[in-house]
Design a protein that fits this description.
It is built from two helices and four strands; from the N terminus they run βαββαβ. The chain is of the alpha+beta class. The chain has one domain: Alpha-Beta Plaits (2-Layer Sandwich), CATH 3.30.70. The strands form two sheets. The protein has a two-stranded antiparallel sheet. A two-stranded antiparallel ribbon has the order 2-3. The structure holds iron/sulfur cluster (2 copies). The site of one iron/sulfur cluster has 14 residues, from helix 2. One iron/sulfur cluster (SF4) binds next to helix 1.
Length: 73
């Protein structure tokens, strides 16, 4: 299962900002309700969470960047 952002529909004011910033079409408005579509195209950019003015949208995933171990060469 692909890890996707989640929306607290009680907090969502349907401003549509998350829909317009998501470049992969994972967030759509269906009958005036914001809906997340599970897709592997979501690249976990967390932009949708960042633009949400009400804190309704949460990206539960974390992106961990690990440094390559140093090699003595
Ligand atoms: S994390 Fe990025 S790609 Fe994934 S749904 Fe949000 S805006 Fe779209
Ligand atoms: S940005 Fe937040 S408040 Fe606006 S439609 Fe998306 S989830 Fe709802």
């Amino acid at each position: 299962m692909t890890e996707m952002p989640s929306i607290d529909k009680k907090k969502c004011n349907r401003c549509g900002l998350c829909v317009s910033v998501c470049g992969c079409g994972a967030i759509v408005m269906v009958n005036n309700v914001v809906t997340i579509i599970e897709t592997e195209d979501c690249h976990w950019c967390t932009t949708c969470e960042a633009v949400c003015p009400t804190g309704a949208l949460t990206c539960s995933f974390e992106i961990v960047i690990e440094e390559s171990p140093k090699t003595d060469s």
